[in-house]
Design goal:
Length: 241
């Protein structure tokens, strides 16, 4: 049995060596040399992603953050039913902001990365039509901004975020995203030091980059220079890579 086994293995090794499909080197003079790459080689070396640049883009244009950086993490809750509405209100999970907001988010993320962390998004730009959808489910201004007036999310100038390590471990901020209660307030100081330190790291860094926070939501940040933009209803395409 073992002899047959070794014989078979030997055959496979020899046939692999003789198999010209991995690299073809024999070719007629003047003929273009064709190199067939090994399948494994292609799998182990994925092509490097080429990112878009902000060149020639107006500051108010809506852009998809993932096209400009792969340094962020995403858990876009409104594209799932894992949110306080208990309903999916986005067709697909995408994070868009205006160009000016995207630029400072990348800068802020670079500051976090120097300390071993990165931004994780729960929500970004939100089309006004989705604001109407949310208002229909929860018509209470304490939890959802009135769509007639719109929120800064509808203007492409607000993001809901937390921090995670570069290995993907979320930092403890004391509550989940969209926890409506005093424990989520910035002025709630009766919390373990680790949680307070995590919130301070997030808040101080975001403020350094021009964002401002709201008292009742540790995860929400408005970019000052985008908070007066018009409410928008641009809808992002789904099925992007
Ligand atoms: Zn928010």
């Amino acid at each position: 049995m073992s002899k047959i086994f070794f014989f078979l293995v030997g055959c496979i090794v020899i046939s692999c060596k003789e198999n010209p499909s991995t690299k073809t080197s024999s070719h007629a003079p003047g003929e273009e040399q064709l190199e067939v790459l090994d399948t494994l080689e292609i799998i182990s070396k994925p092509p490097k992603k080429i990112f878009k640049t902000f060149d020639n883009l107006a500051d108010t244009t809506f852009v998809r953050l993932a096209d400009f950086s792969d340094g962020f993490s995403y858990d876009l809750r409104y594209a799932t039913s894992n949110n306080f509405l208990k309903e999916q209100v986005y067709d697909c999970a995408e994070c868009y902001t205006r160009v000016k907001t995207a630029k400072v988010l990348i800068a802020a993320n670079n500051t976090f990365k120097e300390k071993g962390f990165r931004i994780k998004f729960f929500d970004c730009y939100r089309p006004n039509s989705v604001q109407y959808k949310m208002w229909k489910i929860v018509p209470n201004p304490q939890y959802v901004a009135n769509p007639k007036k719109g929120s800064i999310h509808n203007k492409g100038g607000a993001v809901d975020i937390t921090l995670e390590t570069l290995d993907g471990e979320e930092l403890d901020m004391g509550t989940d995203f969209d926890f409506f209660g005093k424990r989520a307030y910035h002025d709630m100081t009766e919390l373990p030091k680790e949680i307070l330190d995590n919130r301070i790291l997030l808040k101080e860094t975001m403020e350094k980059h021009g964002f401002w926070s709201v008292r009742t939501e540790w995860w929400h940040y408005n970019y000052g220079k985008a908070s007066n933009e018009k409410v928008a209803n641009f809808k992002w395409p789904c099925n992007e890579e």
